Amino acid sequence: MRVGDTFLMHLPGSASKPYYHLFIVLTDPEPGTGKLVAVMVQTAQDHTEKTVVLQKGEHPFVKQPTSVQYTHADYYFASKIVKAFARNICHKQASLDAAVLDKVRKGLLASTHTPNSILEYCRTKFQTPP
């Protein structure tokens, strides 16, 4: 797992129709712990966040306007995601291109819905060297 990777994660739903959301990895895993930050996206609707809405063509999974749900940005562990791949709970998807990743990361910093701990952590991780 590395920054810009994406994966589908199975979320609770009916057993006959698995329910998946796309997650975007926003930070590289921490050395030693593998901790990273990822954010979920979902089809844009009236109630979904509007800070960043991905359009068809910005990622192969995105077929219609899709909202980045910064309220659901959270810490994950690379090792657990890899285990979920093996258990068929998660499915690796195409990585984001640099421009779309940059837009999603800037949105996390701008959104009023980003959890404070995630916001502070990502502020240090998104800094570019001089």
In words, what does this structure look like?
The chain has three helices and six strands, in the order E-E-E-E-E-H-E-H-H. A six-stranded antiparallel beta sheet has the order 4-5-3-2-1-6. With 130 residues, the protein is α+β, with helices and mostly antiparallel strands. The protein has helices at residues 78-86, 98-110, 116-125, and strands at 6-11, 19-25, 35-43, 53-54, 66-77, 90-93. A hairpin with a 7-residue loop joins strand 1 (6-11) and strand 2.
What's the gist of this structure?
The protein is of the alpha+beta class and 130 residues long. It has helices at residues 78-86, 98-110, 116-125; strands at residues 6-11, 19-25, 35-43, 53-54, 66-77, 90-93. A six-stranded antiparallel β-sheet has the order 4-5-3-2-1-6.
Based on DSSP secondary structure assignment, what is the total number of beta strands?
6
How far is the N terminus from the C terminus? 26 Å
Number of helices: 3
- Spatial strand sequence of the major β-sheet: 4-5-3-2-1-6
Average pLDDT value? Answer: 91
Radius of gyration: 14 Å
Q: From the helix content, strand content and strand pairing, which structural class follows? A: alpha+beta
Strand content: 25-35%
Shape: globular
Oligomer: single chain
Q: Which residue ranges are poorly predicted, with pLDDT under 50 across at least 5 consecutive positions?
A: none
